[in-house]
Amino acid sequence: MARHVFLTGPPVLTPGAIKGVGKTTLIQKATEVLKSSGVPVDGFYTEEVRQGGRRIGFDVVTLSGIRGPLSRIGSEPLPGKRECRVGQYVVDLTSFEQLALPVLRNAGASGCPGQSICVIDEVGKMELFSQPFIQAVRQVLSTPGTVVLGTIPVPKGKPLALVEEIRTRKDVKVFSVTKENRNHLLPEIVTHMQSSQK
């Protein structure tokens, strides 16, 4: 049986915006249910940052509540730093790594069977500018006793190597989230995560 669970799904066009299909919301709900049943959960998710009704970037938020910038529209990179850009967003690699890497390294160090779930939302273009992040994700996926609940983007354009690696792993179950099924997937995801803990 697949040990890890990853959610994928397309962006949804809504009047005046492109919104996600609900992967992060599902991850947050699953995390709440798992924590309330006594399962140790750690990790991070990404969240839109809006100003005046307009998306200006994304933050990375750890499950312990620490928040920092992942990207912002048109931000200038710091002098001497290479620019990592996805569309109009400039990625703040330093901020991302300072928040995400310790969480992943702690999860990867647990090594006790049935001990923890690590949330990785998301393994996407912005996050993949970080080589240490790529290594940490591979390490967590290979650590006995750690189960990953994560998100990956829908394949579009040039394939992202780590995303395709995750998608084709034998120990990964990928759920495709749609507007139609997103409200019904939560129990299936939680049941799968709990059975992976055994």
Number of alpha- plus pi-helical segments: 5
Determine the oligomeric state from the structure: single chain
Structural class: alpha/beta
Q: Could you report the average pLDDT, rounded to the nearest whole number? A: 87
Taking all Cα atoms into account, the compactness measure Rg is 16 Å
Task: List the strand order in the largest sheet.
Answer: 7-8-6-5-4-9-10-1-11
One letter per element, helices H and strands E, the order comes to: EEEHEEEEEHEHEHEH
By DSSP, the count of extended strands is 11
Strand content: 25-35%
Q: What percent of residues adopt helix (DSSP H or I)?
A: 25-40%
The end-to-end span amounts to 12 Å
What about the largest sheet? 9 strands, mixed
Overall shape: it is: globular
Commentary on this structure:
- The protein has 198 residues and is of the alpha/beta class.
- Helices cover 31% and strands 30% of the residues.
- The chain is built from five helices and eleven strands, in the order E-E-E-H-E-E-E-E-E-H-E-H-E-H-E-H.
- It has helices at 23-36, 93-108, 131-142, 161-168, 186-196, and strands at 4-8, 12-14, 17-19, 41-51, 54-62, 67-73, 85-86, 89-91, 116-121, 146-151, 172-176.
- The chain has a nine-stranded mixed sheet, with helices on both faces. The chain has a two-stranded antiparallel ribbon with strand order 2-3.
- A hairpin with a 2-residue loop joins strand 4 and strand 5.
- Helix 1 (23-36) packs across helix 5 (186-196) and helix 2 (93-108) packs parallel to helix 3 (131-142).
- It is globular and about 50 Å long.
- The N and C termini lie close together (12 Å).
- The relative contact order is 0.23.
- The mean pLDDT is 87.
- Keywords: ATP-binding, Hydrolase, Nucleotide-binding.
- One of its GO terms (molecular function) is ATP binding.
- This is Cancer-related nucleoside-triphosphatase.
- Pfam families: NTPase_1.
